Amino acid sequence: MKQRREGWVGWLFAAPWVVGFTLLMLYPLVSSLVASFTNYSILRQPKFIGVDNYVELSKDTVFHQSLANTLLYALGAVPLGTVLAIALALLLNAKVKGMPVYRTLLFLPTLVPMVAQATLFLWVFNGDYGILNALLRKIGMNPPNWLGEPMWAKWTLVAIAVWGCGNAMVIYLAGLQNVPPTLYEAAELDGAKAWAKTRHVTLPMLSPVILFNVVMGIIGSIQVFAVPQVMFPGGAPARSTYMFAMYLYDNAFQFQRMGYASAMGWIMFLIILGLTLVSLRLSDRHVHYETS
Known about the structure:
Blueprint: H1 2-35, H2 52-59, H3 61-92, H4 99-107, H5 114-124, H6 131-138, H7 150-163, H8 166-176, H9 181-189, H10 194-222, H11 226-231, H12 244-254, H13 258-286
Helix pairs in contact: 3-7, 3-8, 3-10, 3-12, 8-10, 10-13, 12-13
């Protein structure tokens, strides 16, 4: 009787989470999966059409372009953001006077909301009155049209993503402070210099944290929406910045094709799942866990 009462108490405490998960996660997931097999629209009742949405996606050139743009963005933003975040974390891990101030200053950009970031960088990269082009002209360079040329527009988005690497930097910093000092002492006894200690001690001990941040970076990059939507409405120029999530949003709320957008959402889920599994699989050879 006592065990049964304790069981009910446990379910009572878990009930808010179970209800929240069911209403806010499980039900929308199942509903979107069902909707992906229909021609559901806000304006009409859904009609089952089988896999027609998925067949149409396979032939949709705009979908292919948005997917390619998103993958190229991730290919630039994730590696560059990872390298910069690790480099900053290594610098901020040094024992220097006033280090908390430096850490705060480097983390502050992460606190800026996405829409505010986009508005700020519209000014920074503006070809006529932007501060970046003004500085480049001061030193005698002929600056490109950052927002008007397809190639530079893509790199602009990558640069903004890398600029906001503060969250990853803080996680790497926490990982660095958990590396046992005895490992560095042993490396010094073997005659290891700074780079050798970084390569053979720091990076292997930091590898689980790197894996976590890379996976989270991939997930965030595939879902990127706010900054390109504000800076490049419609994916301008020439749809070079038209991202997967932007096309999904347009289908759902502009074209009123909820079923088609739901199918896109599940394709996005499968892509993220596939890339995550590949990352975890590749990590078997390169990630070092202290307990192992």
